[in-house]
Specification:
homodimer, Farnesyl Diphosphate Synthase, 16 helices, 2 strands, about 75% helix, disordered N terminus
């Protein structure tokens, strides 16, 4: 999703303050230049890999995790000037490579056809196989390529982090937080897959998945990594958790609502894709808990049907709204966002970071950033 | 493969010198203890993940890459005493986590059923799904779990490396070599998948795949990482390349021969598995180049047939031997090993490392270590 799709009248988008998204892009482009040369040394067959990753990384994505990392660093007193500022931006940008790995592997596991309105990586390589007239299994080739391209992004993420140029002592302080962030997001992904397999998840179990897969990964840990890069102590990490965890949960709940009710032109995904996938969100868990027997039957019947048509999407939307689940989730988003903002008010962060983190909270929960 | 399957009469296996394999095992077990606690914090659903990874990592594998890394360090003057010695062993052990990730993802891409005589990770989680009576797709659950468990091992690999306790300046010198090793092995894997897709690979193209996927990854780069951990300069890296690249190629050629002619009790894989998979090895490329039209027809017909029976395996073995491809590959193994040993003789390495690297070269090419 790009900024142009979400203009904020009369204001710079909070993720664009101090030119951050442009700098993240530049850092990724420079990194891809170096890696493309390494790949070219391996063989000419690597060109489609370099091209696909450049397309995926440069000018793609919201840059939410680099944004929270960078403002976590600024909030802890990081001074964005000269080479040290650029090094911190590179360290923050490394989270975008982790996110690219997670998305490439996620699309593979979900068999999603598209990502940001373009073919998912496994589909892109499946198409390359078909167009090249190669032998055997095109889908299998696409899947193998997606496994390996996701692996490349995952290892490049810590390569960019540790090679960012940030002072070694600060890097060493931040690395354990970077590490636990990765374990948590992968474990959260597994819990998510497990929930889909077990079916009929409770609201409580769905919220646990959100906590690890989204709230910690998207907001809390990036803030922690940024704070540690600026040499912050444990008090600020606690304050960032008090802001980041409720905000991260609110952000995911907003994403879930948009996954069912969002405008495809804004979300970049076909309407009802989350419903066809059978995603067990808090929204769906609430609808099942609050619904009548007839409403539950509609959910059981339609949710996860890969052939779900527009009428089916409308039926499910009707149940989710009619049970009061939608209103309840909207209320949760409001409460969680207020809690995050209250924690931010009492956190010992720099004034400019407080302003931007406030704007980010609104952007992430009122609408998609 | 465990040592007990490959006793060397009257001698300690070179990978066991100075108790290395026991220490690698201990380091992995201690690391898994810590990670199991992190996973348990995410939720009780994570227990099978921790258990599967412990089973995979502890007491499994030959520890070839940690071995070359450790002896690369010793050869460069690393002194194995006290905490610094244990830190170097931990840094070397981190390569085993990278290898675990590669194997878990490789088995997934190849749809292999077994690894080291036990179910492959994706099959293990498919079986968990079936035994638990969960809903929807058991195979899809197994595949998603394998993607995520491989990702965990990949990120844990650099976590263990950077958290090994090795002196920060030495770690910083070794990290770029660690990084390029990862990019090379993933790129090599992609080239391998590409070769299978394109079919009918030449001997030259097959050797390029070996170079990146095996020779650099298994031997040259682990030696380089070890050397850099001991503060070695570029001359020693060049000498290690002159030893490691031909040896690594010889090692892979031996592996390819064993993949076709090896005893299942020793290789841990069913006889002919590489043939059923349609692996395009140098051995097969040579057989196709040297064969008569009739012999080529047998290869085209049988290679890559998933239902290949014992008679078919025997037919292919007959062609590979009959074309002279087997003898030619055995001669290549001999020449490459001699070249590696000659380079070792003139390398400026410590005496004890020279002895063990000599033994490792023999163990890796005469038979499987």
């Amino acid at each position: 999703m790009t900024r142009s799709q979400h203009p904020i009248p009369g204001a710079v988008h909070p993720l664009d303050r101090d030119g951050l998204r442009g700098r993240v892009n530049d850092a990724l482009a420079a990194f891809m230049d170096r890696q493309s040369a390494v790949l070219a040394d391996v063989g000419e067959g690597m060109a489609p890999v370099a091209e696909a990753l450049r397309d995926f990384l440069v000018d793609g994505g919201k840059r939410l995790r680099p944004g929270f990392c960078y403002w976590g660093w600024r909030g802890a007193g990081g001074v964005d000037a000269g080479p040290a500022g650029d090094a911190a931006v590179r360290a923050a940008t490394s989270l975008e490579l982790l996110q690219a790995s997670a998305l490439i592997h996620d699309d593979l596991m979900d068999s999603s056809d598209t990502r940001r309105g373009k073919p998912a990586v496994h589909r892109r390589f499946e198409a390359l196989h078909r167009a090249s007239g190669w032998c055997s299994n095109a889908a299998g080739f696409g899947e193998a390529a997606a496994v390996l391209l996701g692996d490349l992004c995952l290892s490049w993420s810590d390569e960019m982090f540790s090679g960012s140029g940030v002072d070694p002592a600060a890097l060493a302080a931040a690395k354990p937080l970077f590490d636990v962030m990765r374990t948590e997001v992968m474990a959260g992904q597994y819990l998510d897959v497990l929930e889909q397999a077990m079916g009929g998840g409770s609201v409580e179990r769905s919220r646990r998945v959100i906590r690890f897969k989204s709230a910690k990964y998207t907001i809390e840990r990036p803030l922690h990594v940024g704070a540690a890069l600026a040499g912050a102590g444990p008090e600020l990490l606690v304050a960032y958790s008090a802001y980041g965890l409720p905000l991260g949960e609110a952000f995911q709940l907003r994403d879930d609502v948009l996954g069912v009710f969002g405008d495809p032109a804004e979300t970049g995904k076909p309407a009802g894709d989350d419903l066809r996938e059978g995603k067990r969100t808090v929204l769906l868990a609430l609808a099942a808990e609050r619904g009548t027997a007839a409403q539950r039957r509609i959910v059981d019947e339609l949710l996860g049907d890969p052939a779900l048509d527009d009428a089916g999407v409308k039926d499910l939307q009707g149940v989710i709204a009619g049970t009061g689940a939608l209103a309840e989730v909207e209320a949760m988003i409001g409460t969680l966002t207020e809690r995050a903002l209250a924690a931010l008010d009492s956190a010992a962060v720099t004034a400019d970071a407080r302003t931007v983190l406030h704007e980010l909270a609104e952007a992430a929960t009122v609408r998609r950033v």
